[in-house]
Amino acid sequence: MIKKEMIAMLLAGGQGSRLGVLTAKMAKPAVSFGGKYRIIDFPLSNCINSGVDTVGVLTQYQPLRLNTHIGIGIPWDLDRNIGGVTVLPPYEKSKNSEWYTGTANAIYQNIDYMETYNPDYVLILSGDHIYKMDYEVMLDYHKAHNAEVSIAVMPVPMEEAKRFGIMITDENGRITEFEEKPEHPRSNLASMGIYIFNWKTLKEALIAMADQPALDFGKHVIPYCHEKGAPLYAFEFNGYWKDVGTLESYWQANMELIDIVPEFNLYEEYWKIYTKSEALPPQYFSKDAVAERSIIGEGSEIYGKIYNSVIGRNVIIGKDAVIRDSIIMNGVVVGEGTECNKAIIAENAVIGNGCFLGYGEEKENELDPRIYNAGLVTIGEKTVIPDNIRIGKNTVVMGETTESDYKDSELPSGKFIVKAGDEA
Question: Alpha helix (H) ranges present in 145-217?
Fold first, then answer.
């Protein structure tokens, strides 16, 4: 019988609806990040760097890009005969079939998978956070405290605490109470959605709570364990951790990579971030090209000027184009003389010559101001923008557009063009 001390279950089925058109055609963990990676590379790399070599990746929403990216796990050294990485989509069962309805329901539906490894511990992770963490240190903490459940927490500013699940602990770190998004928080220790369970404890809780609609860790499983008197402990993490769930936080996390002293360093030797890499030629810079404080992916050709931006792989930036404070993802073509300010341009989009993205005053977005804000211009995957178009702030464009889509060749601040079939 196979025996693993700890296996990881990585929840990667989320739509990430607050990323708008960026997740119209792919799951949030598959979104590009940092010019070279996808968001899921971070928790996967944490696993392999922490010595966790068995990872179940639970997918659901638009999983194609994610499945192709993970493959058999070669980049993370997770192509193992025993263990390794396994993609776990929802599947047909003889009695009833159902989608994963909540975080814990997804884990419950894969009890058989976990059972095959007969683990002592199960590590539950989210596929959509940017951070480096040694899960082995957390496991040592879990064992040292004889915990049945350990929850990774990090201190947040008190005024932000109401956005999180908050843990109240005694002097030994044992959790005495927890509150889901409390109006008046009594602690600032926020749950990071990273849990280590004793396998027996987890299995019992999942089976006992299986009938709950949208079975969830924060709402059902953790309270169940707490009520049963299981020792729950908070493992405090003080490193960099970013939930890139909104366009603004996604843009910010990318921009933080190019700070003079980045808080989150991609260049550390001892904690590498692994990803699926294509065999690409090196970047090319023409004699007129300028690049300051930017990340430029492999295979990109730069003929214009780039300032404070993150540029992906196989990108072409035309002559006299100016890119500032922007994220340009893989395979994008930016035409000659085009200017981009604070734009997020998704994969394989084509921006014509002589365009100007991000001009004028900010106005509230008419499609969804909760998603499209912070003065950003968001351009969806494979979008085409014709020559000489001006686009304002807090705007979104998705689909193959033509000149007739723009009145007087412009899309003013706060407006949107989302072609039928490309709805986010």
Answer: 199-208
On whether the pTM is more than 0.70, the answer is yes
Which is nearest to 246 in space by CA: 23, 43, 63? 23
Contacts of 161 (CB under 8 A, 6+ apart): 182, 185, 187, 188, 190
- Taking only Cα atoms into account, the Rg of the chain, rounded to an integer number of angstroms, comes to 23
| Parallel/antiparallel/unpaired status of strands 343-345 and 305-307 | unpaired
Q: Kindly write down the DSSP assignment for every residue of 282-309, as one continuous string.
A: PPEE-TT-EEES-EE-TT-EE-SEEES-
Specify the residue for token string 């683990």.
Answer: 119
Residue pair 121/142 in contact (Cβ under 8 Å)? The answer is: yes
Model pLDDT, residue 74: 55
Nearest residue to 294 via CA among 277, 315, 272, 278: 315
User: Beta strands of 89-228 (E only): which ranges?
Assistant: 121-126, 129-131, 149-155, 165-169, 175-180, 189-198
pLDDT tens-digit map of 204-243: 888 888 787 778 888 888 888 888 888 999 999 988 888 8
CB atoms < 10 A from the CB of 64, how many? 12
Q: Give the three-state DSSP class for 98.
A: coil
According to DSSP, the β-strands at 121-126 and 189-198 are: antiparallel
pLDDT in tens, 287-334: 999 999 999 998 999 999 999 999 999 999 999 999 999 999 989 999
CA distance 229 to 269: 43
